[in-house]
Here is the input.
Amino acid sequence: MASLLHYFETSRHQYIYDAGTNRIVRANPAICDVARLLHTHTQQGIFAHLKPAHDAATLEREYAKLTHLRNEYGLFSTPRLQRRAQRVTQEQVAEASSGTVDMLTLEVTQSCNYRCAYCTFGGGYPGHRTHGSAQMALQTAKRAVGLYVERNRHSKEEFLSISFYGGEPLLRYPFIQQVIGYARALPLPAGKRLSFNMTTNASLLTSEMVRYLAANDAGLLISLDGPQAEHDRCRVFADGSPSFETVLRNARMIRNTAPVYCAERVGFTATLTPAHDLLATEAFFEDELFTHSNVRVSNVSPGNAAFFAECSPHPEHQEQYAELWGRYVRNHVEGRESGKMLTALFRSPLLRIHKRPIYAGLQEHADTVPSCFPGNRKLFVTVDGRLHMCEKINQSFPFGHVSAGIDTRRLTDIVNQYYGLMNGSDCLECWAFRFCNVCYATFDDQGVLTQASKTRGCEGLRATMAENLAAYCHALEHNSHAWDYMDHITIK
Here is the structure.
């Protein structure tokens, strides 16, 4: 039987992570051996099984410790969950769908002036749309904004956030101005303010645009994959010409035109491929141009067989990754801050460990899933007005339209497909369920939520968290304050 316990070690100590309570316990070989048999053997059976490896006094002592930890703190109390998620009814979905929405994202166009080799819409990802000429009508955008504002009349959040997405959204800059103007003219609930955001390749930016965006609190997330050799390998214009110099020139223009806006509302996102020179990319993002900007890093999504077949890995990719990982941990052992790319690459899972809540014990019916409820955290509206959970999943899962609202029957079916997969034995016996971030997009396989896709995501998650648990404890062994800087960071 699998167990909600994870055993790991550093160069100094052995540990047991107990998912039921979310605690990490320093251990020794004997207590680990006893814990592995705790839910399948009686005390007498454990002693008989382990007698060749440990003497009777040791087994008695370690068994007593485990019994104390179980009685006092709820540790080692449950071998598995009985249920991960409770199926929902259409009435429950209707109630959930009448609540607030954190962010509205508008697909203003499916056109793009780039042809990035790894693009989700480049034809290499089965089930996803491809580049096209479809554009959102102004009436569709107005209905979406009106729906979003109405859903948030009783929101406790100060900001109502509207994001523009493509394709390349700046191909429709006048349209974006119209939407912003319309939203600003709406009567907002008391105490609410509008905030706008845009994911862009930045190639079309002008100083006039920057001044307008800054005046309207419209943040930019600019795609920039690193130094010229890394960026231009994949991110090219539709005619195949490189784009790095254009993007970098416009990034500098933003800083010169609106330095405060640049520092507060402009960020960069890099998509890493196996071919990346990670050390060169890390050095690039330490340039003074990025001193005050947020930098995000992600890996190319799996599933594009043609791209990965043609993408020759950098000969030292794995070694470079290990070097950066080691540098990040050493920095915090030695009390130093890490740079932007190191933080973007490695902080998130360690932050989740550091900020984890501690529980008195495990409720067998956890009723906890890692994904947001579709349409509540994000509402993604495609050019034709259909409602989707977010822009990361393909467009095979619409659950309504701006003209008619949410189709609760359709949404109930989607949610229960996902919950059904979350109730599989692999989830109920998974030691990493407290750290799980396997969402609907992870499960998607050409428009269907599948166990195979979920399994791939789960394997990656467990490997990452196993590595990070060991690194987290390793750092604390050398500096008990290594992760104190995370105390004031909020997990979103």
Remarks:
- The chain has a mean pLDDT of 93.
- The radius of gyration is 25 Å.
